[in-house]
Amino acid sequence: MPVMPEISQRAQSLGTENAFVVLAEVNALARQGKDIISFCIGQPDFPAPVHVQEAAIRAIREGKHGYTPSAGIDPLREAAARYMSGMRGGLPIRPEDVVIGAGAKPFIAYAILSTTDHGAGDEVIYPNPGFPIYESQITACGAIPVPVQLKEDRDFAFDPAELEKLITPRTRLLILNYPHNPTGGLLSRKELQAVSSILQKHPQIWVYADEIYSRLCYSGEFFSIAQLPGMYERTIISDGASKTWAMTGWRIGFASNPRLAPAFTRWITNTESCASQISQWAALEAINGPQDAAEMMKQSFLDRRNLIVKILNETPGISCRTPGGAFYAWPNVTEACRMVGAADSEEFRKRLLNEAGVAVLADIHFGARVPGEGQHLRFSYAASRQAIEQGIARMADFIRENTRKVA
Asked: For 64, how many CA atoms within 13 A lie in the half-sphere containing its CB?
């Protein structure tokens, strides 16, 4: 074998999004003819609205195929500014404050890269459990990840007092995500006010508000930390088309901050050049056009949330809090693991997939287990009512059958 060049430590240590890893397992089993009901991927199971599809076709036929400015086409920046402002109590978001990216995900890295310096000991606080790309990108960008633990008895919010203890002179960025992936938890206005009060004492800290699920909030009107006094200028608001209009594969996100928008634009110039022009015109139609499809999807997710929480709570060994938003349930399966003799949620997940044909994600796919919080799974209920009913029934049968074996 020839001697090959080394792969960098950075590349070798780069984390991943395990939803896609488990999806590959599911697809491999499906190719073998196994019947799998999957709750593992976090995307709407609806097509993009028809008028959005038509706008994309129109853009193609009109020859809108080339590069756009790195920050995005002006009409979309204007529409996104109006949309983000209207969703957040009339914040003074200008078109020049908004940058369009190839999805919302790249802005996680751009925010970290724009607020921390590699190897300087800068710290980023992020929620745990949390979207795995937060920790992965903090590490890859050369900053220090500092998890703030989400607690089940707070409906998967964190204790602001615990956040305050984690802040040091080296803290540069706080990542907030609400509604939250993977738990569906929310941060209430009162909790956000407590966070804001803490941050007033630490003017060196930026906030990355990942609000991609802002239109999927089921308990009242969505409220952003950027709406609180003194928070708008230091908050990076991140939103996008993926979840609201079922446009995950179209790859359109938008971020807003009056000071950092030029930096984000330069990062895009250095990486993706610009988001797809075709997708940008489609997103413009998504924002400006009829919202009945988006509202229908939200109502469908709410109905499914109520169904899956009810059925999970009727399943032996499982308890599930009612999530406040997004399309995820985060049931506690500590007792179910004990009943079937599974060492932890990951062993339970693997057995559930291979023995019952039900695909879910385990808590460890979203960060280190929170001490004292037990074992959890993530279900994406962006699945049909039939799939929810059949999948949870399979899991209940799996628990009952295996409980008899170990009893």
From this structure: 18
- pLDDT digit string, tens, across residues 208-262: 999 999 999 998 889 999 999 999 999 999 999 999 999 999 999 999 999 999 9
Architecture of the structural domain at 65-288? 3-Layer(aba) Sandwich (3.40)
Q: CA nearest 200: which of 230, 235, 162? A: 230
- Classified as helix, coil or strand, 222 is coil
Which of 206, 399, 229 shows the shortest CA–CA distance to 312? 399
Which CATH class for the 9-47+293-406 domain? alpha beta
Record the pTM. Answer: 0.95
Segment 282-287 mean pLDDT: 98
Go through 330-365 and write b for each residue having 16 or more CB atoms within 10 A of its CB, e for each that does not. Answer: bbbbbebbebbebebbbebbebbbeebbbbbbbbbb
Q: Give the residue carrying structure tokens 């610009």.
A: 274
Domain with CATH 3.90.1150.10 in the chain: 9-47+293-406
Distance CA 347, CA 345 (A): 6
CA 393 – CA 407 distance, rounded (Å): 21
